[in-house]
Amino acid sequence: MAASLDVLRGTLDLLILKALSWGPAHGYSVAEWIERVTDDTLVIEEGSLYPALHRLDERGLIEAEWGLSGNNRRAKYYALTTAGRQALKTESASWTRYAEAVFAALSAPASLKPASV
Amino acid sequence: MSSRREPLWRRYLRFFGPDVDADIEEELRFHLEMRERQYLASGMTPQAAREAAERKFGDFDRHRRRLRRQDARRLRRDHWSERLDGWRRDVRFALRTLGRQRGFSLAVIGTLSLGIGATTAMFSAVDAALLRPLPFPRPRELVELRNVEVPFREYDGQEEHPSGAPTIRDAIALGELFSGVGAYAVGGLNLSGTGTPIRIRVGVVTTGLLPTLGVRPAFGRLFLPEEGNPGNATVALISHGLWQRQFGGDSALPRSVLLNSRSYRIVGIMPQGFTFPEGIDLWIPLTIPMTFETFEPFRGAILKTVVARLSPGASLDAARDRMRQLWVRLPAPERGESREVLTDPVRPLQGSLVGERREPMLILLGATGLLLLIACVNATNLLLAHAATRERELAVRAVLGASRGRLVRQLLAQSLVLSVAGALGGLALAAGTLRAVQGLLPKGMLDIASPHLDLRLLAFAVGLAGVTGLGFGLWPALGAARTDAQGALKSGGGHGATAARRGRLRRTLVTAELALALVLLAGAGLMLKSFATLLSTDPGFQPERVAALQVVLDGSRAERNANRVMAVSAILERLRGRPGIEAAGAVNDLPMGDQIRMSIRVGVEGRPGGEGVEPIFARYLMASEGYFRTLAIPLVRGRFMRETDDSLAPRVAVINETMARTVWPGEDPIGKRFRSGGREGFRTVVGIVRDVRERMDEQPEPHTYFPISEFAPPDVTIVARGALAGPDLLAALRRAVHEADPTQAVYNVRTLADAMSRTLAPRRSNTLLITVFGLLALLLSLVGVYGVVSYTVTLRQRELGIRAALGASRRDLARMVLAEGTAVAALGIGIGLVGAFALSRVLRGLLYGVEPTDPAALFAAAAALFIPAILATLIPARRAARANPVDVMRSE
Fold first, then answer.
1. Rounded-to-integer distance, Cα B728 and Cα B736, Å
2. Are B623 and B708 in contact (CB under 8 A)?
3. At B391, which helix (H) or strand (E)?
4. How far is A111 from chain B (nearest CA, A)?
5. Which of A59, B153, B383, B831 has the greatest number of CB atoms lying within 10 Å of its CB?
6. Domain ranges for chain B
7. Interface predicted TM-score of the whole assembly (ipTM), two decimals
8. Beta partners for B618?
9. What pLDDT is recorded for position B232?
10. Which of A27, A68, A77 has its CB closest to that of B31?
11. Which residue is closest to A79 within chain B, CA to CA?
12. Contact B27/A24, CB-based, under 8 Å?
């Protein structure tokens, strides 16, 4: 846990969309999924998870509906809308490009060091 | 996912709107619980699991608050955009529908434009004069102190002090009530020293006036307190306009100007647009006390107004009480003519500037209000007729599940679209008539606040549109939405209970419309009759072919009375021999002018005055014999004054018939003697002339004429009667004066007929406006009558056909329809007459020589409405007469 990172806001939205791409889920399972798949590297703050969910709902990327959880508890389920699915596709593409670019820079060989003036 | 659906009861709760708070709470709690479960599963004790979950979660309340804010914002936004969307859809729908029915739409829009335009135009005048505050700081504090005197130094301490009223000094002493007190008077002076002498309007103001109003000069300074003392008052402030015109806006102003040949030092320039009280170009100090010396040029033609600013804590009522006390301390006979002032000694300045124009303006605004009401009734009527044609469509939509609220909203959107279009048309109309409206305002008011189209007016028109849209649209909308869908579908519209109900409603509306129109027409009839009465009133003189101009026999060259008398005589001498001029004369003040009338208190020889004797006031004029000949004022008895009646001769006077009757009832006044107040010697009455009216709408007052050859005032009006037409006569008159004295400035050049017509101008415009409103009302209600009767004919087509089949003649059918039209018209007119009677007192102030219940005028109004109303029903009646049983049967 010591190595956990805070999640940037735009990134959190993308992760939420990805989490929901497997099917409707409630907030807790979204958080739990992210923590699980990143091996607890990314820790989701509840203080930002729910505002993000509600914001995405408002933007029409996901929609919320009340349902019953597996243990028969009332829970709010979020599901991707068509617009959300589309956003996930474009966002994850651009995120990947971005991450690859940063990674390429960080792992650049010494021979490519900045020109000295 | 169906197994996870929330319980049904919860959805019913949603019916009342989502419960945002509970949802958030529940969502977050669920999260906490799940986390706790996870920790439990990983082997923690329940206690440790809960604590760890809570620690991980953080501040529950903060998270909840934040979500709550976020969701509430969203909810509000959703709510509004949903509504807006609905309205936008309805408006689009209305535009489409109306676009398809252009004739109907134009009729409604035109009707509303008339009503809204007339009301908005009138409102612009009322707004400028009555509602908009004066352009001074804290304008509500400004009041006029009525009948407060500015004392004359020469009268100070004298027993004869004019009215015995409180003086401005008394008001200034009331520092706890008034934070500032000032007085002003308006007059004309000759400005010379810069080329041709010009005549300018001068404000003579006490040094306290401008600070009281709260104005500052654009350049220089205001008057200093010591410049309000007699002897120091040789300073002047000039208007921005005069600075631009006469001095080219040059910063190197001449340091002094000559006014009636006296030198004044310019100390400041007032800001642009400031011309208080009206059209003033130059201000000089009014000293306290006034002196004959400084006041000489204005003598006989100046009225002072005293203005004060209430102290922050002082109320109008407190000021009234205090000023009343100042009056009450005076002995009773001195208060004789001021009883009216006693009841209202302090008035808000704005009200007193508007003065007597207030009442007509409000009445006219009321008249436009009636017109607007008629327009609305008419629009309602048109909408009802329109609703009949859409009955089927609405019924179908109702059957298909459109809610009643939705239908009402849609119909209302339609009427709002119509009324907004009406408001735009109305604004255009108001903009076009603004110039005419300006004529309704007092001249002084135009300078201070002139009516113009601005956001206020726009807001007013839009507000009217909203109210009218709801007003005329709601009823038809509710009615249409109530439509009995089944009935309408079965009968194919135009029949059945709905149609009959609508027919009754429309008849009622037309009756109301006729009643309202009659009220307006009755007003128009009364005003027209007043005006005709006024025009046919004999003013006591013949204004045709008489020209007049004013000259100022100013200080340096004519300081002495003898010089002025000679100057007048020289001008008259020039005129006498000229071809084309039949008679000429001189007088200090013409009838039909707007000058301040001077009166004397008549002291009759041998009759004691004092307590208990009603004082007689007579207007006093100074005239030459030629004045009477020029205006063709007949001599009744005795003789006119002669040129030999000079200051050395025994004093004589010519009086008018009213004075003869008032002062010497049942006696022969010729040879009787009287004097002005108690100051001068007695003078003998030598002649009686016919009464002359000062204004057409005023009864003659006692007049006395002193020979102008005895005393000539500085300000003299020269009159001439000629064979020439107006402009030529004016030119001849001007030339003669110029020849007599080339340096003489003349002003106020006009023909007497023009002057007379000017005094009638406010009445003329009031009469014209009410008449126009009445005619518009007539037109609108005729459209209404025609519409409703022709609608019933359509409704009864079947019945009429059956009657025809059963043997009714065409004449019978037409008579049936006519009878209905007549009934509606008679009922409407009857109700209108009652209304006109009830409102008659409102109009009394505007009438002249006509009772507000004048039967002839009311009858004429009724006839003017009844006859066209019957004619309007003739057209549908003829259609009814052609009813053909075969056609009717076929159409079924």
1. 12
2. yes
3. helix B358-399
4. 46
5. B383
6. 2-87, 147-344, 359-536+760-891, 546-723
7. 0.86
8. B600
9. 74
10. A27
11. B1
12. no
